[in-house]
């Protein structure tokens, strides 16, 4: 009887022990999601490029899921895990609405996503998420998540392949992280935030090959959700 605890020997190998490569269930399909929140709005943006190594299987995927008229979920990372996560979130959202006869609030969605991700912590979804929306007072907020559900509520969050290129821009232009003049943070209008998002993604697409094609910008206000598309580099 074979002892499964004993390594399999291979005479031709350098050290006498056969090396068996481990299966990796994860892959990074690129993409970037970002959000800027204001006093009475929040915008969620994501590019539509789907990459597999140096290949581009498709240039038109959506990384943003509408939870309701005031809350949206954006996801970067592995496409298969993103689809699975969005399916779970959609199902739980419908169950919540049937049980409570009202749509989920921003705080409820942000906490539910954290619970869903943490439940899978031993075999996590390879996704990096943001939840953006309006709170009960109509003020915009966004939460950024890691793969196992830890999150932080802020006014600006960026996740995905272009984060290292875009986050410093947002820190400087939105948070004024290095401002010394004492003037305080600027109160960006919806139009200014939209233009800043376009500039940030355009810059990231120049240096990051997994970012490009089309930028989808969802604008959430008290009147609902509006979609604007902006063309990025396609090479």
From TrEMBL:
Keywords: Cytoplasm, Nucleus, Proteasome
Matching CDD domains: proteasome_beta_type_1
Example of a GO cellular component annotation carried by this entry: nucleus
InterPro entries per the UniProt record, alphabetical: Ntn_hydrolases_N (IPR029055), Proteasome_bsu_CS (IPR016050), Proteasome_sua/b (IPR001353), Proteasome_suB-type (IPR023333)
Quaternary context: Component of the proteasome complex.
PANTHER family: METALLOPROTEASE TLDD, PROTEASOME SUBUNIT BETA TYPE-1
Protein name: Proteasome subunit beta
Species: Rhodosorus marinus
Lineage: Eukaryota, Rhodophyta, Stylonematophyceae, Stylonematales, Stylonemataceae
């Amino acid at each position: 009887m074979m002892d499964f605890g004993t390594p399999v020997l291979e005479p031709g190998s350098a050290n006498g022990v056969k090396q068996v490569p481990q299966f990796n269930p994860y892959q990074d399909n690129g993409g970037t999601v970002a959000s800027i929140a204001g006093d009475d709005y929040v915008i969620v943006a994501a590019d539509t490029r789907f990459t597999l190594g140096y290949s581009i299987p498709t240039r038109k995927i959506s990384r943003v899921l509408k939870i309701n008229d005031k809350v949206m979920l954006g996801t970067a990372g592995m496409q298969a895990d993103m689809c699975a996560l969005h399916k779970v979130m959609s199902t739980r959202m419908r169950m919540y609405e049937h049980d409570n006869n009202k749509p989920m609030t921003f705080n409820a969605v942000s906490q539910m996503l954290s619970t869903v991700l943490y439940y899978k912590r031993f075999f996590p979804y390879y996704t990096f998420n943001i939840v953006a929306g309006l709170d009960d007072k109509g003020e915009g907020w966004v939460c950024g998540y890691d793969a196992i559900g830890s999150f932080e509520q802020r006014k600006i969050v960026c996740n995905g392949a272009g984060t290292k290129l875009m986050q410093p821009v947002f820190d400087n232009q939105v948070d004024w992280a290095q401002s010394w003049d004492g003037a305080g943070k600027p109160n960006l209008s919806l139009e200014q935030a939209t233009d800043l998002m376009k500039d940030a993604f355009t810059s990231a697409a120049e240096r990051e090959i997994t970012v490009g094609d089309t930028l989808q910008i969802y604008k959430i206000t008290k009147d609902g959700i509006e979609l604007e598309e902006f063309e990025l580099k396609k090479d």
